[in-house]
Amino acid sequence: MNIFQKIAVKALTRLTGVETDNPLYRGATNSRLSGFNRILGMTDQNDELILKDGYAKNADVYAIVNKITKALKKIEWKVEVETRDGWEETTDSQWNELISAPNKLTTWQGLIEEYATYYLLLGHTYMYKSEAVGFPGISELTTMPADKIDIVAGDYINPIKGYQLEEITNAFIPFDKMVFQKTVNPVGTFEERLYGMSPIRAAWYVVQAGNNSWEANGSILKNRGASGILTSDADFPLTDEEIDDVESVWNKRNSGPDKFGKIAFGGNKVNYTSIGMSPSDLKLIEMSIIPLRTLCSIYGIDSELLNDTASSTYNNRKEAEKALYEDTVLPLADTIKDGLNMYVTPDLVDGDKLRLTYSTKNISALQADKSIQSGIAVDLVESGIWSQNEAREYIGSEPRQGAEFDELKKNNESNDTTNTENL
Questions:
Q1: Sequential pLDDT tens for the chain (423 residues)
Q2: Gyration radius from the chain CA atoms
Q3: What is the per-residue DSSP string for 56-110?
């Protein structure tokens, strides 16, 4: 520990009241110091900077994350209970109550959107589990501000002892009260690797280039007001005072985006001088699409979905939407589902018999062409590979009651009994 770190630790101890020689909080102190380092830019990942400059000020990152989370909100979450016949959907469980109202301020879809947003931006995300006094199980779920949470590090056997919320001094949260998920992070010390690695960290130069590009474009539009000027063709030069007056009037009348492309007029006999954009200015604007394409590649979506039709690799938008779900949204949904089943389900009433899952039947981009789907189902039923109810499940229809709908067709049966109407 160098002299600056020692000073920071002493200041941190005075600020939080956490003694550095207390073994329980030693990890917390180191983690809090890591938080100061992130703010001061001493480590590679600065969560606050990522959220401020990499998201709130970057239109491309905002659009990408917003596209993913809005698609995620279309997923229908449901609960299943284990019965003698297998897993069946239920609407009467503590999980269903949480989905109906996770907390006093947020809907379930809003909760998932917040949780996923932090995960996509920072590579780690947190959800607090509240217990109702005098009642078993969990009463509320709340997404926590991931950039304000510090991990209380342990050892290799128990890597995480708990969490500390920077916004509330000494707010220690035990490990079993929090849902924590992270991406793979192979970089840094033991404590640094407990956090996830942000995709924006890998793309930071791209994010900066995008911010600089848009700033430059804004400057071009602001300073390149009129596209030309008509001036006096007199032979007498202007005095310094007249030049200042003309410049002042020019800046007032012709600078600004609302003057873009217009022509300014002067009096008397006139000449026209073009002052439009230079080829380098135009090239700069054209290159502003490159950061978007790179960031889309990092997040696993096609930039066509963000109106970049020139680089599309799909025949139509529906194919791009389908790829968005298959390559990015559904894997993210699986990650969230697995995390909630690991950290939340066991704490619920009858949690050992429940599981959280989801359905994609209402997502149009994932629905196959019905005529093709029905044809496949009929062929498989006719071949004795599927029962009629298996085929009905495949095409998204409800199963029918009766043993004949669960039996496989025998080869010597007539082919007239199975058609798309029966399915």
A1: 444 445 544 544 454 444 444 333 333 334 434 443 443 333 467 899 999 999 999 999 999 999 999 999 999 999 999 999 889 999 999 999 999 999 999 999 999 999 999 999 999 999 999 987 888 899 999 999 999 999 999 999 999 999 999 877 768 999 999 999 999 999 999 999 999 999 999 999 999 888 887 677 666 556 655 556 656 566 667 677 876 777 677 677 766 666 655 666 655 565 656 655 555 555 555 566 788 899 999 999 998 898 877 766 666 788 889 999 999 999 999 999 999 999 999 999 999 999 999 998 888 888 776 667 788 888 888 888 888 888 888 877 778 878 778 888 776 555 444 554 555
A2: 30
A3: IT-HHHHHHHHHHHHHHTTSEEEEEEEETTEEEEES-SHHHHHHH-SSSS--HHH
Where helices occur in 224-301 by DSSP H, the ranges are 240-254, 279-286, 289-299
Range of the domain at 54: 3-205
Q: Is 260 exposed, middle or buried (0-12, 13-18, 19+ CB in 10 A)?
A: middle
| Axis-axis angle for helices 204-223, 289-299 (nearest 10) | 150
Does residue 295 fall inside a structural domain? no
Q: Is residue 356 part of a domain?
A: no
In degrees, to the nearest 5, what angle opens at C-alpha 91 toward C-alphas 85 and 97?
Answer: 135
Q: What is the DSSP letter of 409?
A: P
The Cα 206–Cα 208 span in angstroms is 5
CA distance 203 to 226: 37
Clarify whether residues 94 and 232 are in a common domain.
no
Pair of tokens at residue 190: 């033991």
Contacts (Cβ under 8 Å, ≥6 apart) of 20: 9, 13, 26, 29
The answer to whether 152 and 160 have CB atoms below 8 angstroms apart is yes
Beta partners for residue 181, in sequence order: 125
Residue 311 token pair: 């680089």
CA–CA distances in Å: residue 247 to residues 218, 224, 270, 358, 363: 22, 14, 18, 65, 59
> Which residue, chain included where needed, has tokens 């779900």?
325
Give the total number of structural domains in the chain: 3
150 and 260 inside one domain: no
**Structure tokens of 27?**
């990890």
Say how many CA atoms lie within 13 Å of 84 toward its Cβ: 0
Domain identity same for 195 and 243: no
pTM score, whole prediction: 0.70
In a domain, 335, yes or no: no
Does 78 lie in the same domain as 110? yes
Say yes or no: 201 and 270 in one domain. no
